[in-house]
Specification:
It is built from twelve helices and 16 strands. By secondary structure, it is of the alpha+beta class. It folds into three domains: 77 residues, Winged helix-like DNA-binding domain superfamily/Winged helix DNA-binding domain (Arc Repressor Mutant, subunit A, Orthogonal Bundle); 123 residues, 3-Layer(aba) Sandwich (D-Maltodextrin-Binding Protein, domain 2), CATH 3.40.190; 97 residues, D-Maltodextrin-Binding Protein, domain 2.
């Protein structure tokens, strides 16, 4: 295989037409340059330079080598430059998949922060179920997934990293009939239509036992709510426009609670919590862009835990509703270090 280092030295010798000057330009000794050129000639089996008192001239084989070699050297230089740019996240692409909850809780914020520092990155975000996202990951169509970890159990090609669990809070619209009751039981809450995304098997049976209007998907074991939606945002809109109820981590509804549009219900179930994390291929290292995005997701998740501790619902006696202190903009107040 052609040694690009020796090719570069041959090109330098052709430019200076003198061993001493070429060696000085290359910051090596003249004997070392002579040995290296001889080694290159030996490897190719042809004389590359005529040596005379007037200087050094490329032979016909030398001219051919230099003509083709310049393009190789330019490509190698360009490749090294692209590697440096990719390490510095000046260029590159990251393809990330996200479940509905992490998409709204941390992935969107993390992508925004990453692009704020590296605006030339290309980012492709796909929101869906880990079963679909996992297949895309295994096929090389995604670099990183942030989704329900229980669905990745038993897949040896996949590595996982848990992220903090976020407890779910049941909520309804302001003025909902439930808010006239001092402490409605869960069965009473779920007597109203429940709007939400499909829920994984780890909590499906527990949920079905309480929300009998839903169903279990026989092919996946997921709980299918009576009002099934594909995003948390859509569930909020359904709740705001009807007597439907839903559940979500408090940060996802804090703004609407603070504005008096939604109210959190005083129900806490230990099993109603998120269980997602980072998912990636075990035998393929993350690209610099994917690793940077994963780091941002970890930072946002840590901030969410701290914010949730400060967002404990407090009563609003005028309506019997419960409100939460306003969640400050994480983008404005918690931008990650450069």
């Amino acid at each position: 295989m052609l040694d690009l280092r020796l090719l570069h030295q041959a090109a330098t010798l052709a430019r200076y037409r003198n061993f001493a000057r070429a060696a000085a330009a290359l910051h090596i000794t003249q004997p070392a340059l002579s040995r290296n050129i001889a080694s290159l000639e030996g490897a190719l089996g042809e004389k590359l330079f005529h040596r005379s008192r007037q200087g050094v001239e490329p032979t016909a084989f030398g001219e051919l080598l230099l003509a083709r070699g310049r393009a190789l050297l330019e490509d190698a230089t360009a490749l090294e430059r692209e590697f440096r740019r990719m390490r510095g996240l000046e260029v590159g692409e990251v393809r990330v998949g996200a479940g509905p909850y992490p998409a709204e809780l941390s992935v969107g914020e993390a992508v925004g922060r990453l692009l704020d520092r590296h605006p030339r990155l290309r980012v492709d975000v796909t929101v869906g179920d880990l079963r679909e996202l996992g297949a895309a990951l295994l096929e090389g169509k995604l670099d990183l997934v942030v989704a329900e970890l229980s669905l990745a159990e038993g897949e040896p090609r996949i590595a996982t990293e848990p992220l903090p669990a976020h407890a779910g809070v049941f909520y309804c619209r302001a003025g909902h009939p439930l808010l006239a009751e001092p402490a409605p039981a869960l069965e009473r809450v779920l007597a109203f239509p429940y709007a939400g995304t499909r829920l994984p098997p780890r909590i499906a049976k527990a949920f079905l036992a309480l929300a009998k209007a839903g169903a279990i998907d026989p092919s996946t074991g997921d709980y299918l709510p009576p009002v099934k939606v594909d995003s948390i945002r859509t569930a909020r809109e359904v709740v705001l426009a009807s007597d439907a109820v839903s559940a979500a981590p408090l940060p996802l509804i804090a703004a609407e609670i603070d504005a008096g549009r939604l109210a959190a219900l005083p129900l806490r179930l230990p099993w109603l919590k998120t269980g997602y994390g980072l998912v990636y291929l075990r035998d393929r290292p993350l690209s610099p862009a994917a690793e940077a995005l994963a780091a941002e997701v970890r930072r946002v998740e840590a901030e969410l835990v701290a914010e949730t501790d400060r967002l404990q619902p407090v009563p609003a006696p005028a309506r019997g509703a419960r409100t939460a202190r306003k969640l400050p903009s994480r983008r404005a107040s918690a931008r990650s270090p450069q």
